[in-house]
């Protein structure tokens, strides 16, 4: 009898914590989302689907979704490409290089946001100084929509490219050498071997990184929130030009204390995240064939 | 790709890309605003760093914040190492009904974008009376799906079925098998998991921001964001705070770097970031 129970006791802590702080809050969100609900004061009456209707008519929500998608694409596509290049570059080099490219990943996101906020400052930032040297006028990194998206995307790229490269590197080393040799005998050039042997060989890892990037991208909060000097008071720039969905969620929930509306948004965002992940996976499956 | 010269150039670019933001943090933190506003911004570290450290400590309670963060992250790290090795051991080496299904739940839970659930999580934690207590930021982080998955993997590689079965036949209780057979074999991976959990918890921003009262129970990241907020951002001071705040995680990383890289290179980190 005891024997039969012990394994469950051993895995219980995980399910207890995950159930209580992962699953339960989400299920409760469904209840909260059909009410008018003040974050601190509690329920203020049944609302039906009013929160969802308001959300679908909310231009600020669409603005945040658009910004999130734009920053996600700007951060992810170059990141994955660059990571592939770095992995190929480090394939036959020592572990010291791997340690080096992992350094950005251990720097806290808050620190990354503040450091890049300074580097991308309009007046005294190093980036604008260097651009000025080659004759490009000062870029208003925070005020201009595209520049701001690019700036936030750069932070994400800086923190994750090395990490992704290490995952690709590990996967590349697991591709059997014979496949490369066979392709070489068939007269395939370097680029052709990369496309027909390496990429299909690391397909599972490619898919994993795409899924992880999509899930991370939808949740992006700290980098854009701290991107301009207004810090937590800000809403992603004077015109909300870089407000992401996670930031808008924060504003609604903890700025306006509208938990009902935030709960409805949480559900819609979960669906969007699932759709985005599926789309990204489908794209990679199509581009990289087995 | 294109000859030795191209490779050296690419490697140099990689070094600059990885380290320049950190170097520039040191440069900015050790100069005054007037220096930064010069026609050519400084490229070498200046001499004002220690003064700035003093000023930061005067202005915000960075010391208390770092103590709080260390308590939170330390607890989370130890708890993860223990709870995840226990669960990983059970999933890898014990046979029980529903094992595969339960493990599938672990994997699926790693795919949930938990940051988006911040409002419902707050409602639950607040209803428990945990607002502004360390429990609010510690307890939800006690275990991770990534840790369970990875410790199961490590167990499959390092703890032999024969040894576990033999100890059981000899009358060892499961607790003793775990303590004397599994845990010693998992020491390496568990230490790396503890280090990564520490870093994740130390670096967390949005949850402590809402679950704790920054005036009462500050954490490092929240204090830094506060230092940067306001009408005017005093970058030398802010980046001094940044430098001080990343010392603990960088130290840990330097200590564990080789092991962490070996783990990633083993492909074990494929369930979460």
How would you portray this structure in words?
The complex is a heterodimer of chains A (290) and B (273). Chain A is mainly alpha-helical. Chain A has helices at residues 2-33, 50-56, 59-90, 95-106, 109-119, 126-133, 145-173, 177-185, 190-201, 203-218, 222-225, 245-255, 259-287; strands at 35-38, 42-46. Chain A has a single domain, classed as MetI-like (MetI-like fold). Chain A contains 13 helices and two strands. Chain B contains 14 helices and no strands. Chain B has 273 residues and is mainly α. Chain B has helices spanning 3-29, 33-36, 49-59, 62-93, 99-109, 118-127, 134-138, 145-158, 161-169, 174-185, 187-203, 206-211, 220-228, 235-265. Helices cover 73% and strands 0% of the residues of chain B. Chain B has one domain (22-265): MetI-like fold. Chains A and B meet through helix 1, helix 3, helix 4, helix 5 and helix 7 of A and helix 1, helix 4, helix 5, helix 6 and helix 11 of B.
Distance between the termini of chain A: 48 Å
Taking pLDDT < 50 over at least 5 consecutive residues as the criterion, the unreliable ranges of chain B are 269-273
Q: Tell me, what's the shape of chain A?
A: globular
Helix and strand composition category of chain B: mainly alpha
Sequence stretches where pLDDT stays below 50 over 5 or more residues of chain A: none
DSSP E strands of chain B, number: 0
Quickly count the domains of chain B: 1
Count of helical stretches of chain B: 14
How can the largest sheet of chain B be summarized? none
Total individual domains of chain A: 1
CATH-assigned homologous superfamily of chain A: MetI-like
Q: Kindly state the percentage of residues in helix of chain B.
A: over 70%
Mean pLDDT reading of chain A: 86
Taking strands numbered 1, 2, ... along the chain, how are they ordered across the largest sheet of chain A?
A: 1-2
The 3D shape of chain B can be described as: globular
